Amino acid sequence: MRTVIMGAPGAGKGTQSVRLARSWKVPHVSTGELLREAVKLGSDLGRRVKETLASGRLVSDAMMVDLLRERLAHPDCRSGFVLDGYPRTLKQVEDLDALLASMGSALDATLLIEVPDDTLLHRLSGRRSCPSCQRVYHVDQIGRRDGAVCERCGTGLTVRDDDKESTVRRRLQVYHEQTRPVLDHYRRQGSLKTVDGRGTPDEVYDRLTSLAQMANG
Ligand SMILES: [Zn+2]
Prior knowledge:
two-stranded antiparallel sheet, about 50% helix, alpha/beta, 5-stranded parallel beta sheet, single chain, binds zinc ion
């Protein structure tokens, strides 16, 4: 299965990609991790990525294609991959299609985990994090009271900047603006499969696997 997985922040995309990849015995290719690994390995490409990130610029489309070409040509991608975090723009959709075509392959499906913004807002802005051990809680488990402490290490829980309500709203808005053209493209092409991302991770996972089976024929 060669799949792209898409979803808003808080939709559970990361968790579900890891599970799907494990069950299909293909790698989970997260572009965020790919960038970090390239920097760590210090290859020629990695050094260019590092310079770009250090200067606060965005990694160019051409650099992303180089990174993906290297990764997807790896033998472990022979029977597929779950691509997470890419493509984010129409240009990147074209780049990915061209890259796969040059390797004699194509995407089997694009999976979208769809969650209403209200639910995402509740999930994300309800997060409380331990600044010491990074464990994450949700107000649904621990209550909204102030002074809650981490079960593991006893440190007082805080709201990360990323999880503040105003920030979450902005992140969701950026997500929608950025990905709408990409989703429209895959929808027109008929390759977009949408699952309801509400409910427990197990429920969403079951929906994804049955949908992917259908996509795989
Ligand atoms: Zn802790």
